[in-house]
Amino acid sequence: MDKKHFAQGIQVLRQHTEKKEFSQSVDLIINFKGLDLKREEHKINTFIVLPFSRGKTIITTALVSNDLSTKAKAACNNVILADQFKTLEKGKIKKLAETTTFFIAQANIMPQIAQTFGKILGPRGLMPNPKAGAVLQPTAEVKPTIDRLQKTVKVETKNDPTIRTVIGIESMKDEELVENAFAVFNTVLHALPQEKHNIKSVLIKLTMGKPVVITEEGAHVKVPIIKQRKPTPKKTTAEQAPLPEAPKEEQKEESAAEKPKKEAAKKEDKPKKAPKAKKEAKK
Q: pTM for this one?
């Protein structure tokens, strides 16, 4: 697929969009086929720097020492100094994890960061990552890193053969969304073992909108498949419900007990035979 196919997708997306009171996020979804996610070479786990901003302003938290404290305070939303690590409560770390988009760290204190933050940030995939350029030397500039992270997205296959990532917001220009979408698609395409043969479908979607399928033949709104419900059997009332049959064993017991009674009754019902006349006495 080329950029023109993504441009068609953005046009269809806008044609079927109801205006909201806020600017919705635009997501790119890529579904895969023929991948075995148990194999490392089939997994996708990378950071992509977009040509344009991802739209919504990111929230950053710096984990640094006094070497970077001044620069970090000027560029980041939150700054936690190494001296505060030991007294930092778990509740505070969890709250930061819920609100922070990217954590950046000072390289020479990474062991301390791992010990204090690893158990909470690790499972969430939020540990400062060198692949994203989020681990800095003590003499580095912080502001350029934050500017780059504002255009950075993480793309990862987890348990399912699919990726979903933000490529911008509704208020951005069409050409900006197209460039961002194609940058992600092209990077993912070349990371797949069989490239285009591993791509099942490509979609774009607004936060509260219908997904739009993008193909080389054109773009269209995805029609949901409605499964027909099987008719539920009518409930029978207590009066209509048939009486339960007696278990076979009980029936056998009853018939065995009633059998001699029935035979006796038959004998009583039979007519008694008249006694035979005694033979005449011999003369």
A: 0.74
